[in-house]
Amino acid sequence: MTEAVAVTENQEIEVEAEVDLSIADKVIERYKDIPGNLMPVLQGIQDDYGYVPRVVVDYVAERLNVYPSQIYGVLTFYAQFHLKPRGKYIIRVCMGTACHVLGAERIRESFYDRIKIGHGETSGDRRFTFELVACLGACGMAPLAMVNDETYGKMTVQKVEEIVKEYSALPL
Amino acid sequence: MAEAIKILICQGTGGISAGAKKVEAEFNRIIAEKGLTSTSGKHCEVVKTGCRGLCANDVLVDIVDGKGRTTYDFVQPEEVVKLVEEHIIAGEPLEKRKAKPYYNQFVDAQRRIVMSGCGQIDAESLDYYLAEDGFKAIEKCLKTMKPAEVTEEVKKAGLRGRGGGGFPTGLKWSFCAASPGHHKYIICNADEGDPGAFMDRSILEGDPYCIIEGMMIAGYAIGAQFGYVYVRAEYPLAIIRLQKAIDTCYEKGYLGKNCLGLGFEYDMRIKKGAGAFVCGEETALMASIEGERGMPRPRPPFPAVKGLWQNPSNINNVETFANVRHIINNGSDWYAAIGTDTTKGTKIFAVTGKVKHTGLVEVPAGMTIRAVLYDVCGGIINNRKFKAVQAGGPSGGCIPGEILDTPVDYDSLIKAGAMMGSGGLVVMDETTCMVDIAKFFLTFTVMESCGKCVPCRIGLKMMLDILIRITEGNGKEGDIETLLDLGATIKQASLCGLGQTAPNPVLSTIRYFRDEYEAHVNDKRCPSNACKELLLWRVVEDKCVKCGACKKACPVDAIVWEKGQTAYLDQSKCTKCKSCYDACRFMAIE
Q: Looking at the structure, do residues A160 and A140 belong to the same domain, yes or no?
């Protein structure tokens, strides 16, 4: 899989500069006394920041008394942690078995044809992030796609076009 | 005295994505408007139930009044006014909008024990659960049974782990109970990662209290005071409902230092996963709870001896825990009478793919796959020919039509080259290519392999490379043999269950559909018209009924069709997306 081309190194540093560590403080306080708290802390941080910024990793390492390398180990192991800022609209296309059998591949392709980003990538204007997921658990409605929390069942190539149009017209 | 009318609306993930929230809001609004909430006359109550199985036909609404239960399917918010006015106020059920006879067939052919509460009770309400004999089983254990007797009862019932392995649950409990140690843990594995399986999610969403009770009983039997539920992060609704249930239990004294006022101490916490399929493996799952990378470790020592934080731990699947309270309530003899000699009780299957009624079905073990697919789920869509059913997800295998009469129990399925797995059944018809399916599952396991051991990390990738080559028309002689060889090695040499079972989809498809592999390799042809590199589409003039369905489906206007005319496919425009092929009901596109 190619790395996200959209977010450049400079942009990232720019964003990092604005990180407010007091948010991370609150999350750490919440889970301070629970054994095995590294994952809940990172999940909380991601919920609040939208991703896990680099400076926060160092900060968490210091507060929880673990090595940053250990934290990166966890962050890169699990699919749901993100080290880069994400788009406003997150498009998820289900690649589960039922969806696959009913044509998920062409849904993926037609999204790619229209927004030109692949799995895990974010568009340059940070409007869209595109993700392939294993199973959203609504196999009765296959093939399935989601935009943020909105579910679109029984997808067709035509519906892809409509969805992209709809969300492209929304304000950033 | 008011006439009580209940309106049950399915609010599982399936229901909500079909618009159940809007339907519910509409019911609430109209009921309030028509004054149907008063204590005299007709009193309506809207009940948000969990999944009732038939997700494909959501939103399902049941209206239960003095005359019994009426089910409506595909309910839209606009129709709610009519339903309230005619059915509830005038007392005239809308015959036309009722679910067709298939619905009763779907329901009647099942035997619902574990899912008895799902779809019937308000998932978020403790009172509903209590009314269904909730917490009676744990009360019985605490008051009248010794821990060893509880384990014995579960052993006698013959309950086997529903996560896929099929290890006898009672035996597992007795190992952990016998391990020395003061701190023991009960862990519920709700990291249901198999694509195409969603029974655990439905139970958590539809009847969360039964998991709490099942885990409490296990805790009592083993001597554990703490329970973890590891839920995958992809199930936000399940996490919310379970957390709510746990909070309510603490509040009402069902959990905590003195559960039910009977001196039993038990605490529970949810651990949210973060998107790693391998965490469904027990040692990886425990590593993940400890806050590490979720990588498996060699066994022994088994979790029953050294598990979570080096303490004795017992891991069972959601469905296993959901069975426990029924065994205690009704006795082991009652339970052992259901099912076959080696597999007792019922099993929930998630039937999806090219079948008419997709959804969750709970049937007694031993029913044939044919009966599940045809009697319960109504057969194949678009009247196409059945080819195979994939059982057990990425660890399982494909079962062809010839052995459709295999009963669904652990041992028969393994003999057929598949496995029970968590219970996903994905149905495939003549248009599904078996090489492509094998490639699909391997792509998944290659992505999810944790990378710790070599056979799984590198072996699977080598198998996948060969499969990709074959589906692109570049297969070589000897490829099939190499696949078999690699598969056998990976099965033997891998560290954990993921690697040991990952070659199964390939091996079982080669076993039953070797001719399809050979057609790809030797003739560079895909007999099922699925591998797009090998295809050129056209309309078969003799078979075309001039309906125009293909034109509607085509996203690039490559189909030329006018009313009363045979369709024509313009190759220069075609992107080989297969939309027309899937849309045609007469196999007139090839």
A: yes
- Is A79–B276 a contact, with Cβ atoms under 8 angstroms apart? yes
Structure tokens at B358: 């997709």
* Residue B280 lies inside a defined structural domain of this protein: yes
State the DSSP H helix or E strand holding residue B168, giving kind and residue range, or none if neither.
Answer: none
Chain B environment of A165 (Cβ under 8 Å) = none
* CATH code, domain carrying A144: 3.40.30.10
Residue A72: domain span: 9-77
Is B24 in contact with B46 (CB distance < 8 Å)? yes
Give the pLDDT confidence of B187-240 residue by residue, as tens digits: 999 998 887 788 898 899 999 999 999 999 999 999 999 999 999 888 888 999
Instruction: Find the radius of gyration of the CA atoms of chain A.
Output: 18
Question: Cα dist. B220→B133, B146, B148, B489 in Å?
Answer: 19, 9, 9, 42
Query: What's the CA angle centered on B367, arms B363 and B372, to 5 degrees?
Result: 70
Helical pair A38-49 and A68-77, crossing angle rounded to 10 deg: 70
Contact flag B353-A101 (C-beta cutoff 8 Å): yes
> How does pLDDT run across B32-71, given as a tens digit for each residue?
888 887 766 778 888 888 877 787 787 889 998 887 888 9
Which ipTM value was assigned to this complex?
Answer: 0.84
Tell me if A156 and B428 make a contact (CB, 8 A cut-off): no
Residues on chain A touching B17 (C-beta within 8 angstroms): 138, 141, 144, 151, 153
- Put simply, the answer to whether B291 touches A74 (Cβ < 8 Å) is yes
**Which residues, other chains included, contact B259 with Cβ-Cβ below 8 Å and sequence gap of 6+?**
B138, B142, B216, B253, B265, B266
